[in-house]
Amino acid sequence: MNTKVIGSGVLVALLAFSVIGYIGAFGEKGEGKLEYKVYAKEQIMSGAYKVYGNPRLGFWVAKVVLYNSGNGAIKNIKIKYSIDNYASETEKSYPILVPNGTIVDLYYPILSSEVTKLSASTPSNIRITITYEVNGEKKEESITKPLNILGVNDFVFSSLSPEESTGSFYDTFSNAPLLAAWITPSDPVVREFADMGNKLAGGAGASLSDEEAIKSLSGMWALAVMNGFSYKTEGEGYWTGKFSEHIMFPRDVIRDKSGTCVDLALWFASLAMSQGLKSYIVLMPEHAFPLIELPSGAIIPVEATAINAGVSFQQAVQVGIEKTWQEAMSGPHIIINIAEMHSEGIVPPELPQLPADILSKWGITLQPHGGGGATGGTTGGVTGGTGETGGETGGDEQTQWNTYLGNYFSFDYPADWNAPEDYGGYVYLLSPDGEFEFMIIYSQGASVQDIVSAFEQSLTEAGITIKDRQETQASMAGQTVYTVFYTLDTGYGDYSAVARYFTANGIGFAVVYDFPAGNDEYNQLGEYIVGTFKLR
Amino acid sequence: MKKFLVLFFLLLLPLAVAQEIKIVEYKIDGTMKVTIDEVGNAYVTEVWKFTPNLYLQMKQAYPTTYMIKREFENKRSDTEYKNMKIEWDDSNNQIKATYIMLGAAVNKGSYWEFKLGENDLTLSTQTGNTVVLTSVQPLFGGQGRLVETITVVLPEDAKNIRFENALIKYELPYKESGRNPIFLALAGIAVIGLVLLNIPLKREKP
Prior knowledge:
The structure holds two protein chains of two kinds. Chain A has helices at residues 3-23, 169-172, 188-200, 210-226, 250-256, 261-274, 313-329, 338-344, 358-361, 387-393, 448-461, 520-532, and strands at residues 34-40, 43-45, 62-68, 74-83, 87-97, 102-107, 122-134, 137-150, 154-156, 230-231, 244-246, 258-259, 278-284, 287-293, 299-301, 334-337, 401-405, 409-414, 421-422, 426-430, 437-444, 465-476, 479-489, 494-504, 507-516, 534-535. By secondary structure, chain A is of the alpha+beta class. Chain A folds into three domains: 34-151, Immunoglobulins (Immunoglobulin-like), CATH 2.60.40; 156-361, C8orf32 fold (Roll), CATH 3.10.620; 387-535, Mog1/PsbP, alpha/beta/alpha sandwich (Protein Transport Mog1p, Chain A). In chain A, the strands form seven sheets. A seven-stranded antiparallel beta sheet of chain A has the order 19-20-21-25-24-23-22, with helices on both faces. In chain A, helix 5 packs across helix 6 (261-274). Chain B has one domain. The chains are: A alpha+beta, B alpha+beta. Chains A and B meet through helix 1, strand 3, strand 5, strand 6 and helix 4 of A and helix 1, helix 3 and helix 4 of B.
């Protein structure tokens, strides 16, 4: 056998080997076989619709699991998703799925903001189309899954299905962080309410210091008390978490002037955040309340439902510290860091634009509820006086009187005196001879004890000694109030002072006048002016 | 008498008490070893170590390991888990989990891509086919933080391994059946050889 024959034989064998190899006899022959599973959410919350489009948050709406159980590769896989009317088609593609390989594809739809117009659960469909190639042959699978888009105020507390849930507190509130989407510090309505509260407080820069923050929060609280905000109890089954519950946006609380404990917690947290303060929401079994972090880092719990009793902000904090916080810490609870959740992407939806004067239309005013009139200005200037009372009190029937009109109260004073001055927390009137002073000290959210302490401490700081102090009750603005008669050593003679302390409309008041000891004329004048005092 | 200077110092009253209220941020230290096979599945062993206090709270919150398991292996999970086992380790205040993540790495055609969630990831070291990362992940609605060291072992034949944009990318060519151009080249060589051997050239004299 010559070399030519042998060489030809080898080359023929090589040719045969190559052809066989090329057609795939040596590889993993066979074809790919696609198996798939599709998981889809049964419902999504339109109030938190933005979270579903953010992969970082993991709130997918559909999950497609592809598995190649065949021996060959599956190629050019494309998965298309859409939600009827609310999310246009998006496509994901994978060039290859190897044998025994798995692809897990998640659908994070960019939902139309139209969903926020839904006030009730609305049925829709998730459409999924899977196309792929097996050995050059194109194949397609189509799947439709029903989806309920909940109304913008509907909140589902638990993301667990009934068969997965143990019914524990944490299972029942597994969606709790999504409440951050209902906290709207940037809502113009919330900001305006907060600004009004600040105005009520005499102007406060909440982020500057703890004092300013408390002042600002007290003002907002007082504004709510003044406007008759109330706590409404949750409906039966509210805390079961089995299905969606109605959660109000803070603007809804302002409009309705009422809310459940969750609503009020979200509302007050929003107000605080609108002023640059960090806030948290604490969820505990059957209750919720806000925590506010002051500029120093100190944290105050606010029992927001105390608004119902018209108590001061201080009292709401006191209840928060002594009762609510303790109860929360003694059992299961969840603390939601709102700023962190917002930064993670759990953010509020776009809310409808409202008229600039919406607070006025909703009856939110700086006047005590039922009151009206001007909200600005400190000194009145309404002349003519109230002669009938002046005459009856016998001070001087010929005296002409002016009326001081403040934001919260009014009183009469002799027309020939200089008008009272408002120093943003107290209003001061001085007789022409400098011997008689009349002043009203007021503070949003302060209790009677707070005001008494503040007044008496201010005397001490002014170098005035309280020589005698007699407590009694006296009438004031139609009510009997705590009253103290003081004898004061001022350093230039003894003075008598009469101070009436009370709270009204969430504001603590001290109405005080003082005069040289034994001067009955000034004493009567003081009582007369007190008699003209009216809350506005 | 001088005017009284009444400021809002009275409003500081609750703060002395309020100073006592602190929100404790929980920190959990974790280790995770991930071994990825040739089809992209990840075999994971994970350990979370708690402070004693937090460990007790965790056991109160999750009285059964089922409840923890369900946190991962449920209908909401963004991963397909298989063979998950979770154990409490009371003596070390830690929990240990082993599981398989199906399709953890995805074949993107010319390379594979392994994504470890959406956490903040930092590359610590890379040696051969092993990549070590550090992950920081918020927990409990922002009330806690999981700091985890993650060791990723890629398939032995993985090449050109790099960590980019919080992803591990590597090349692992798929041995496609049939239509391999090498066979086509060999066939070409064989044909040319046969032609040269068996067809006489014109220049050769008869």
